[in-house]
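Re-run with default settings, no changes from the original entry. Doing this only to confirm the output is reproducible before filing.
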Amino acid sequence: MAGTQGGLAPPVQDFLSSDDLYHRASGIASWTEMATYISQPGYPELSEVNQARLIRIPPGKTPEDFLAEMEGVFADYGIRSFQVRVDPRTRPPDLGAFLAGKGFLEREDWIYMSDSIPDLPRLPIHILDATYAPVLRDFEQIHDRRNTQELDGVLCVQLAELRRFRRESGIVKEFVAYFEGKPAGAVTVLQGEKTLRVKDVVVDPLYQGSGVREAMLAMVVQDGFLRGAKTAGLFGEDLDFREDILERLGFRRAAPVAGYLREGRRLS
């Protein structure tokens, strides 16, 4: 892949643009817009931890500006832990050192990209679009079973509301994978004009280690290419696939993305 502006290849630029679309459609392109987004009716207040987000830093913003705006936005929400990815197109070169001095851990993530249709595994599995009510019910149940193993009940309800909120915005496509006719996993993607962005791959705990997770990823990528995508991309940390599995499915490291995490205390 030939590099372009900022050393990023065109497919990576398209991938980041799809993330822009996701955030813009959700009302998030800056910390201030994030505050607006999470104040909208229907958005759950995740008061203890917030999900990783890719944040663009406007030109001219210093690391001090970045941190001050972040702390101001989240002070009202009492968030104790926060993880953020910074868009490599707008990241100030001294941001990492500055945030390290403020108690943030840097966690490098990678964007993985593929421009080839993966071979489908030989498993008795098929996927269905969750726009159908029975499929959507299975989609929600899979997420709930996964979340209740790790999170408390209130947060599980909030996450369900967050999925509904994003679904109604029309920016995601959701699928359920059926293994031998039974719901086994759920996938969320953004289908852009050129790029399929894989957001989430969840396997029902009953099917962990069965190969269903890899099969689902291969099938939604194939579906995205058939719908007109030229490339598919994902954040490695989001999906937590082993790199050899991603490579077997045609994905390769395309660009590093810096993430920052601070845990166990309020930001302010």
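Residues 1-5, 25-32, 46-52 have pLDDT under 50 and may be disordered. The chain has two domains: 5-110+257-262, 125-229.
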